[in-house]
Amino acid sequence: LNYARHTSRFLTLWIMLLPVTMVGDLGWLALPVTAFVTWAFFAIQEIGLVIEEPFSVNYLPLNVFCRSIFEDTETELALLGGDGGGDNATAYDGVHHPYNNSSTAAMPPFLSVY
């Protein structure tokens, strides 16, 4: 994220020089205008950083999504005729499905996000 650091430093320098350029025209009104512009630009920068990583652990409950997909797949496999375990599981054209279809089945480790 070197470009994010560069953007932050450039924005900070620009914001620090902004009141110097506006004080001649606005006088003391340059302070609240600078405060508003600072808030707006740093908010836009923070939104951009958040949008960069939409699947961050802090923002989306991916473990819940994975669990739901896993349980729905188990249900579909059971409806298609696979018993969810054993050597005779034939759901999805004979592909062996090693997990049982009970609701208490442990989720495979590769589906766990945390």
Task: Give an overview in words.
With about 110 residues, this protein is mostly helical. About 60% of the residues lie in helices and about 0% in strands. The chain has helices spanning about 1-25, 30-50, 60-80, 90-95. Helix 1 packs antiparallel against helix 2 (about 30-50). The protein is rod-shaped and about 80 Å long. Mean pLDDT is about 75; it is low at about 85-105.
Number of strands: 0
Shape call? rod-shaped
Order of helices and strands: HHHH
Distance between the termini: 23 Å
How large, in whole angstroms, is the Cα Rg? 27 Å
Mean pLDDT: 74
**Structural class determined from secondary elements:** mainly alpha
Percent range for β-strand residues = under 5%
Low-confidence parts lasting 5 or more residues at pLDDT below 50?
86-104
Residues in helices, as a percent range: 55-70%
> What does the main sheet amount to?
none
Count of runs of 4 or more consecutive helical residues = 4
Summed up:
This protein is mainly α. It is built from four helices and no strands.
Features:
114 residues
Draw up the topology in text:
Layout: H1 2-26, H2 30-52, H3 62-79, H4 91-94
Helix pairs in contact: 1-2
